[in-house]
Design goal:
With 233 residues, the protein is α/β, with parallel strands linked by helices. Helices cover 41% and strands 20% of the residues.
């Protein structure tokens, strides 16, 4: 493990190396909670129109939106070609090629027109974006006025009698399990990136500064994750 986030930076190349086992690792390291968190993420997405899922990875969220919102067309964007290849295979197995499109791209420079999407999601990806404010501004730009922008992100657990156990899981169990199962030390990046992510109230303020309105924050599972929902102005 390198001690610097700049050396293990959450880039597309890093995720290419762990793409084949990414879904399994998420299930095990979150003890299955990531599925219920994702359901809450997409609960506010519109039933029709175009929806964008940023940092789509292996397309779990994109596929979940397509299943839950049968009138929606979903675009999944990610910088990792390896992750997208795994996602495309899942889309084909689900026979949803006509409703789910995957695109390689950067959250900081979204390749879409203004006011294009009815809603936007991003799960466990915003902490990997170098310029988060720019990414938030881009989300607001491509979303129709009033459309929901939902962000799910892991957190450093704080407060409560069980918080020390949750922090131990994040700091020690998660990196060890990731290394053991994937064979790649990059999963230690997860621990460092969670520590470096701003507290929930601070990140909500950044969303407002980027132009989002009606921002709400929901604490999930002992504070190990938060759901942030705002709307395009």
């Amino acid at each position: 493990m390198t001690s610097s986030l700049s050396k293990v930076d959450g880039s597309g190349a890093m995720f290419d190396r762990i793409a084949q086992r990414y879904d399994l690792l998420n299930r095990l390291m979150s003890m299955g909670l990531d599925r219920s968190w994702r359901r809450q993420l997409i609960a506010g997405m519109p039933s029709n129109g175009d929806v964008l899922d940023i940092a789509t990875g292996t397309a779990d969220v994109a596929l979940s939106i397509a299943h839950a919102r049968t009138g929606a067309h979903v675009t999944g964007l990610d910088p990792s070609a390896g992750m997208l290849a795994v996602g495309q295979a899942k889309i084909m197995r689900a026979q949803l090629e006509d409703r789910v499109l995957l695109v390689e791209g950067d959250a900081q420079a979204l390749p879409f027109e203004d006011d294009h999407f009815a809603g936007v999601t991003i799960a466990f990806g915003i902490r990997n974006v170098p310029d988060r404010m720019q990414a938030l501004r881009e989300m607001a730009r491509v979303t129709c006025s009033g459309g929901p922008i939902a962000i799910l992100e892991l957190s450093e657990p704080e407060g409560g009698i069980l918080a020390p156990f949750a922090r131990f899981h994040v700091h020690h169990v998660v990196p060890w399990m990731g290394w053991l199962l994937s064979g790649h030390r990059e999963y230690r990046y997860l621990q460092a990136s969670i520590e470096a992510f701003p507290p929930a109230a601070e990140f909500a303020d950044r969303m407002r500064s980027a132009g989002l309105v009606d921002v709400e924050v929901t604490r999930l599972t002992l504070g190990t994750a938060h759901l942030y929902v705002g709307r395009a102005p």
